[in-house]
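INFO  loader      accepted 1 record
INFO  loader      residues=235
INFO  predictor   begin
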Amino acid sequence: MKFFGGDAEGRLKCKRLRNGSDEGWFEVKNGADNAYETGQVVRHNGASLLSTWRGDSCNQIRGSDATFFPPFVTKDQVTYLYIAAMCRSIKLNYVSSGKIKGVDTYKFVISLQNWMSPESNPENWCYCSAAPTDFENDTCKTNGVFNLAPCLFGAPIVLSQPHFYGAEDWIQDGVIGLAPDYDKHMTTVHFHPLTGTPVSGYARVQFNVDLIPFEEMPTFADTRHAMVPIGWMET
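INFO  predictor   done
INFO  writer      dumping tokens
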């Protein structure tokens, strides 16, 4: 296991580099030339392309940083959200129309394609190493999880939706007490169709570790392979 952040006692703190700090500088379009580009991130910390992943398509910065979005939202559009903490952009798709306190809204949810293996969604090929380790194989051949290690200096953290919503059966079956629920565990944003303003929304994510049998340590020699949740958060 790689430790990071210089903790004096060698403890792994997966949020250490986020606490008490910001995510740097964002260059964002104001929509003066094209209203449909309002809020779109052009550069992050001076870079128009990330260097975290294998290919340019995965390193491309697309979408808003969630501060504000373009107006004139349509039901057939794919909305991108750039999440600096994940070192990637994710897709949101329209699912339904409604009202919140009398305000018309379009509900968008995070696409399950974001969590698919390259075998299920070839667009995700560049999130996996050319010569994957056992740990990377587990995450890159499995639907429903995302290997965050390249974004966290090698820390073996696996992201998923809470309660492993949308993940493969072997992952859900490895933990007792899960109750994945679409309404409770999906990341959602309700946009006002005309202005693009987020009226309501929830970002939901779960942090996990990949528990693998390890013969060199008797305690873990007979351990059953499982993805073990650390905790999940909603903002």
